[in-house]
């Protein structure tokens, strides 16, 4: 069994007091805290191996390059991609989706072509496609939700036609904490001969992902939600698509030869990694993956899902509690009576409890729910039932103030 109290000791930030109270950090869907091993990896790398990768003949550059490519292998193994060159390092989920939107555009999309997304997407899986809508005249089709806020699979099936070129949907909703039936969604897309991108920002920290078993064409995620530093993320893409796509950014690293007459591009993955990559970030991401693997995603999922279930049950004790959907992951969105989410968030903060409030970068979902926003508690490996209890007692206290 995973022992969150033992794990917490690895996270220096969790030891602090906020407003004189022990910090209860429940904003993990926004970003997770970093274990000592990841922080030390960054510090050690700058102290011992820092040198620009792929360019140098000298020792440090070679070591840095080896460590960078080792990190790519760790990521490959983490999501069980077939090939290391199918792993592209980006700044995060947002950049990964923008990369696909931009590079897919040049090769595969024309005016009137259709892209399917869902009602529960994060803005980063809406706006890049809307930008294509403006630039190219592609049409966005949106999967509606059922009354329990799950994806309406029948409606999804009915959205496909001969103009559908791509599906792009989230694995786990950052607002609702609902895990979508992603394998089924992928199979439906493929039965219509349409490739599919999966936004794994909220799944990779919590459940094991196997991109080959899923048969995802693209899979994207962020390091910082996965105990790694900010500024590093991943795009996995099947070789056949990445090879057919045009580069996203131009510059160093992504070229084979540059002449004023003609430039030729580098092979995968470098074709999509223009400029100096965040190799220290990638190395730290590799360490974060080791850290997760040492604990094991099966144990992590068990712990977080049990904590979510426990918290949902306890939240239901509170009069006027409204939980949105049936969270089965590591995030719970709710409202209490008429208390505005921002008021709840501010007052909980005074009790040392860090939760998130508002639209969570999913405004269309919040509009669909016809609410001003939600209060969201989201868990990680280091959270405890004791913290869930502090949250529940805090909400009760705030609720009493509004009576
Ligand atoms: N997709 C999903 C499902 C997300 O939850 C997020 C970030 C992103 C994409 C964007 O990730 P980024 O690392 O590129 O910013 N979600 C949140 C959140 O729920 N609160 O803050 C960030």
Provide tags for this entry:
Aspartate Aminotransferase, domain 1; Aspartate Aminotransferase, domain 2; 2 domains; 7-stranded mixed beta sheet; 4-stranded antiparallel beta sheet; 14 helices; 17% strand; binds ligand 7TS
Question: Strand percentage, roughly?
Answer: 15-25%
Helix content bin: 40-55%
> Which molecules are bound besides the chains?
ligand 7TS
Structural class: alpha/beta
CATH architecture of the largest domain: 3-Layer(aba) Sandwich
State the helix count.
Answer: 14
How many distinct folded domains?
A: 2
Sheet with the most strands? 7 strands, mixed
Strand order of the largest sheet: 4-10-9-8-7-5-6
Topology:
Elements: H1 4-8, E1 17-18, E2 21-22, E3 24-25, H2 36-48, H3 59-78, E4 87-90, H4 93-108, E5 114-118, H5 127-136, E6 139-143, H6 153-159, E7 164-170, H7 182-191, E8 196-199, H8 211-214, E9 218-222, E10 233-237, H9 239-244, E11 255-258, E12 263-265, H10 279-295, H11 297-315, E13 321-323, E14 331-336, H12 341-350, E15 353-354, E16 356-358, H13 363-369, E17 374-378, H14 385-402
Parallel strand pairs: 3-15, 5-6, 5-7, 7-8, 8-9
Antiparallel strand pairs: 1-2, 4-10, 9-10, 11-12, 13-14, 14-17, 16-17
The structure holds ligand 7TS.
How would you sum up this structure, described in words?
The chain is of the alpha/beta class. The chain folds into two domains: 4-30 and 296-401, Alpha-Beta Complex (Aspartate Aminotransferase, domain 1), CATH 3.90.1150.10; 39-293, Aspartate Aminotransferase, domain 2 (3-Layer(aba) Sandwich), CATH 3.40.640. Helix content is 40%, strand content 17%. It is built from 14 helices and 17 strands. It has helices spanning 4-8, 36-48, 59-78, 93-108, 127-136, 153-159, 182-191, 211-214, 239-244, 279-295, 297-315, 341-350, 363-369, 385-402, and strands spanning 17-18, 21-22, 24-25, 87-90, 114-118, 139-143, 164-170, 196-199, 218-222, 233-237, 255-258, 263-265, 321-323, 331-336, 353-354, 356-358, 374-378. The strands form five sheets. Strands 4-10-9-8-7-5-6 form a seven-stranded mixed beta sheet, with helices on both faces. Strands 13-14-17-16 form a four-stranded antiparallel beta sheet, with helices on one face. Strands 1-2 form a two-stranded antiparallel sheet. Helix 4 runs parallel beside helix 5 (127-136) and helix 11 (297-315) runs parallel beside helix 14. The radius of gyration is 22 Å and the shape is globular. The protein starts with a helix and ends with a helix. The mean pLDDT is 97.
């Amino acid at each position: 069994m995973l022992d969150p109290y033992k794990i917490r000791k690895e996270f220096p930030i969790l030891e602090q007091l906020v407003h004189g109270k022990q910090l209860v950090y429940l904003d993990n869907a926004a970003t997770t805290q970093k274990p000592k091993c990841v922080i030390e990896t960054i510090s050690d790398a700058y102290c011992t191996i820092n040198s620009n990768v792929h360019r140098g003949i000298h020792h440090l550059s070679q070591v840095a390059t080896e460590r960078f490519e080792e990190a790519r292998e760790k990521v490959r193994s983490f999501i069980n991609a077939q090939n290391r060159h199918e792993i592209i390092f980006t700044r995060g989920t947002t950049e990964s989706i923008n990369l696909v939107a931009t590079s897919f555009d040049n090769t595969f999309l024309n005016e009137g072509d259709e892209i399917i997304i869902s009602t529960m997407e994060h803005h980063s899986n809406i706006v890049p496609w809307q930008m294509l809508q403006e630039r190219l005249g592609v049409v966005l089709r949106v999967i509606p939700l059922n009354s329990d806020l799950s994806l309406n699979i029948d409606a999804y099936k009915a959205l496909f036609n001969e103009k559908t070129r791509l599906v792009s949907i989230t694995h786990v909703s950052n607002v609702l904490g609902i895990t979508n039936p992603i394998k089924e969604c992928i199979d439906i897309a493929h039965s219509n001969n349409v490739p599919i991108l999966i936004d794994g920002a909220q799944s990779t920290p919590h459940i094991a992902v196997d991109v080959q078993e899923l048969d995802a064409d693209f899979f994207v995620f962020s390091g910082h939600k996965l105990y790694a530093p900010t500024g590093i993320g991943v795009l996995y893409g099947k070789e056949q698509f990445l090879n057919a796509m045009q580069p996203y950014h131009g510059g160093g690293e992504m070229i084979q030869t540059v002449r004023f007459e003609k430039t030729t591009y580098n092979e995968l993955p470098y074709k999509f990694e223009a400029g100096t990559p965040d190799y220290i970030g990638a190395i730290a991401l590799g360490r974060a993956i080791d850290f997760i693997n040492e604990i094991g995603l099966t144990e992590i999922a068990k712990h977080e899902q049990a904590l979510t279930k426990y918290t949902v049950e306890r939240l239901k004790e509170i009069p006027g509690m409204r939980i949105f959907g049936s969270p089965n992951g590591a995030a719970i969105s709710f409202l209490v009576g008429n208390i505005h989410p921002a008021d709840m968030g501010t007052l909980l903060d005074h009790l040392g409890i860090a939760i998130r409030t508002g639209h969570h970068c999913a405004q269309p979902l919040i509009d669909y729910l016809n609410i001003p926003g939600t209060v969201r508690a989201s868990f990680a490996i280091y959270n405890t039932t004791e913290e869930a209890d502090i949250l529940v007692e805090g909400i009760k206290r705030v609720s009493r103030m509004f009576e």
